[in-house]
Design the sequence.
C-alpha cells in the first residue's frame, strides 16, 4: 500500500504473464496464438476467454504481418499480456509504417470489428512511420461477452 496524506491507497498488482517479440512473418501468427493461450491459462482464464484472446491476438498479429512492414522490410510483432485486478490486458504493437489517417476505415477488414466484439474495451493507436499499437482488455473470472449482457 502507498500512503498519501495519511491514507493507504491500494497499489494495483500487475503481473506480467507474457512478453514476446516475434518476426513479422506468417508462421508467427500461430506462435502468438499458442503463447497467449498459455498466458491466459496461467492468469486463471477459462477456455472461452483463451479462445477470445487467441482470436483477437491472431487478428492483430495478422495485421502486423500483412501491413506493418509492407515493401520488403521485416521486423517484429511485440505481444505483452498482463493481469491486473480482475482483467487481462493484452498489447500487440509494431514499429512499422503505421496507418495513414482516413485509410483505416477503407481497409475493409474484420479484425478490429472482431476485437471490438470480444473485448471489454480496446484502443487502437497508429502514426505514419511510427507503428501501430492495439490494446485489448478482457475481464477475468465470471464474464460475459459485451453482447451477452
Sequence:
Amino acid at each position: 500500500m502507498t500512503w498519501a496524506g495519511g491514507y493507504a491507497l491500494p497499489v494495483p498488482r500487475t503481473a506480467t504473464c507474457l512478453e514476446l517479440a516475434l518476426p513479422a512473418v506468417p508462421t508467427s501468427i500461430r506462435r502468438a496464438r499458442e503463447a497467449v493461450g498459455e498466458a491466459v491459462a496461467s492468469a486463471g482464464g477459462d477456455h472461452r476467454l483463451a479462445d477470445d484472446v487467441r482470436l483477437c491476438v491472431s487478428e492483430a498479429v495478422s495485421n502486423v504481418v500483412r501491413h506493418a512492414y509492407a515493401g520488403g522490410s521485416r521486423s517484429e510483432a511485440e505481444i505483452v499480456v498482463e493481469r491486473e485486478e480482475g482483467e487481462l490486458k493484452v498489447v500487440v504493437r509494431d514499429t512499422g509504417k503505421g496507418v495513414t489517417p482516413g485509410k483505416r476505415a477503407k481497409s475493409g477488414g474484420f479484425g478490429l470489428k472482431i476485437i471490438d466484439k470480444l473485448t471489454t474495451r480496446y484502443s487502437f493507436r497508429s502514426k505514419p512511420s511510427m507503428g501501430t499499437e492495439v490494446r485489448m482488455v478482457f475481464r477475468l473470472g465470471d464474464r460475459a461477452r459485451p453482447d451477452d449482457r
Remarks:
- The mean pLDDT is 86.
- The longest helix spans residues 47-68.
